[in-house]
Amino acid sequence: MITYVKKEEIYPAFGICNSIGDIKVREDLPQNVKWFVLEHEIYHSTDTSKFWLWREIKANWCGFKQHPIGFIVTVFMSLSPYRLKLYWQRFKNNK
Ligand SMILES: [Zn+2]
Q1: Distance 18 CA to ligand 1 centre (A)
Q2: N or C: which end of the chain has fewer CB within 10 A?
C-alpha cells in the first residue's frame, strides 16, 4: 500500500518501505521528488539484497532512470545537515 504522510511522521526520511512492502512518502516534497522517492521505495519493496549500500545504489538507479530531475532535486535537498546526519548514522550502523 502506498500512503502520502505528513513530514513529521517519517522525518528525516523522504520515504520508507517496511518489511511487508508498505510504502510511505512525504506529502510536503516537490512533485518531482515524490515521483523519484516513490520509484526508489517501490524498488526496495521487491529487492532481496542484504547489503544496505548496494540496496540504496540500485534503488537510486531505478528512480533516476524513471525520474532524473527528481533524482537531482533529491540530491540537492539531501545536502542539508539533518539529511547528512541520517546518512552518517546509517553508515555507522551499517543499515
Ligand atoms: Zn532507500
Answers
A1: 11
A2: N
Q: 44 C-alpha to center of ligand 1: Å?
A: 7
Per-residue pLDDT of the chain (95 residues; tens, 9 = 90+): 999 999 999 999 999 999 899 999 999 999 999 999 999 999 999 999 999 899 999 999 999 999 999 999 999 999 888 888 888 888 888 76
Rounded CA separation 44/42 (Å): 5
Domain borders along the chain are: 2-93
Q: What number of other Cβ atoms are within 10 A of residue 73's Cβ?
A: 17
Q: Which of 68, 10, 19 is nearest to 39 (CA)?
A: 68
Alpha carbon of 45 to ligand 1 centroid (Å): 10
Cα of 12 from ligand 1 centre, angstroms = 13
Does the pTM of the predicted model rise above 0.85?
yes
Task: State in Å: Cα 66 to ligand 1 middle.
Answer: 15
